Amino acid sequence: MDCDPSSMTSPTPPFAPVQTSTDAFPAHRRLAMWREIYGRNIANVDIETLDDTPFHASVTFQGLPGVGVVTGSRSPAHYHVTRQHLASARDGFGLSVLMSGAATTKQLGREIICRPGSASIISGTDPSVNTMHSFGSFITIVLPRPEVSALVRDLDSTFASQLPSENPALRLLVRYVQTLHENGPLEAALAKAAASHIVDLAALAIGANADAAHEARQRGMAAARLQSIKAEIRQRLGVGDLSAATIALRHGVTPRYVHKLFERDGTTFSEYLLARRVERASQMLRDPAFAAHTISAIAFECGFSDISYFNRTFRRAYGATPSDIRAAAFRIR
């Protein structure tokens, strides 16, 4: 982790991801401006490059109630968090996941050799040095220490240690925060729920005590699993025989569990799949990039094998035929 936890937990609704990059700066001033804007005003760190190669960094922030998420990429550099930086630090800590590249983290007299997919648990009240030795990408999750301490016995003893990439809860957590960024702004109630799920998954990954682990699995893991399944459905809408059974197999759960997740969400697997397919078809019908596609071709690309069924379903959802929607969209243009 290369940021002060206190700098990432005071969002302004609607809790939207915010992106900043050195690409927006003049080439000859990128390092100086990144040190000023990111190092001093956002992350509260000192930045020291490793060599003379052109400097690059890009990060996306998303503040949630009590939790902060940072994803990004950067060129080789040391990111120093000193005692001076920590003078006004809040009671938080970080879970920093290396997604690609080579990196090390030094804290509490230990050095962690970070491996892609693994996560370093970093104290938010002790100095640290995070070094990216090659160009790479990362996810850092800033967490509230009191809330996680209530779930993980002796949390402080885990600081400056590493969680392996094979950790199932960690893998779910990574997919969950990636999906959050993809979904864009969140309303207050959803942001609060997402923050709670992140805390639960982090506690499970680190090692929640037995009672807390049971509760966290019920809340955090189920929510993250559902988000992951929904994301895969959206990616595979064109697979005509997509089913709960095929999704369950890919996620290592039973079809019944998949159905239960959707039932708890107030819908069914089939209803969600059908709604997303019709929604995708509607987007394609309005998009000039698909103007040369026939309606039947669009229906097929969205997973419909029966054009009559597609037309009926579409009209029920939008109160108009696919032809009407397409004609209206192009008249506006």
Give an overview of the whole structure.
The chain is of the alpha+beta class. The chain folds into two domains: 5-165, Jelly Rolls (Sandwich); 237-333, Orthogonal Bundle (Arc Repressor Mutant, subunit A), CATH 1.10.10. It contains eleven helices and twelve strands. The protein has helices spanning 30-40, 145-149, 168-183, 188-206, 210-235, 244-251, 255-264, 269-286, 295-301, 307-318, 322-332, and strands at residues 18-21, 46-49, 57-64, 67-74, 77-81, 92-100, 103-107, 110-114, 119-123, 128-132, 136-144, 161-163. The strands form two sheets. Strands 1-3-4-11-6-9-12 form a seven-stranded antiparallel sheet. Helix 3 packs across helix 5 (210-235) and helix 6 packs across helix 7 (255-264). It is globular, with a radius of gyration of 23 Å. Residues 5-13 have low confidence and may be disordered.
> Could you name the CATH class of the largest domain?
Mainly Beta
Examine the secondary-structure arrangement and name the CATH architecture of the largest domain. Answer: Sandwich
Total tally of structural domains: 2
> How much of the sequence is in beta strands?
15-25%
Which ranges are low-confidence, i.e. pLDDT below 50, for 5 or more consecutive residues? 5-13
Multimeric status of the protein: single chain
Number of strands: 12
Alpha-beta content class? alpha+beta
Placed side by side, the strands forming the largest sheet appear as 1-3-4-11-6-9-12
Mean pLDDT: 88
First and last CA, distance = 47 Å
Helix share, percent: 40-55%
- Anisotropy-based shape: globular
Order of helices and strands: EHEEEEEEEEEEHEHHHHHHHHH
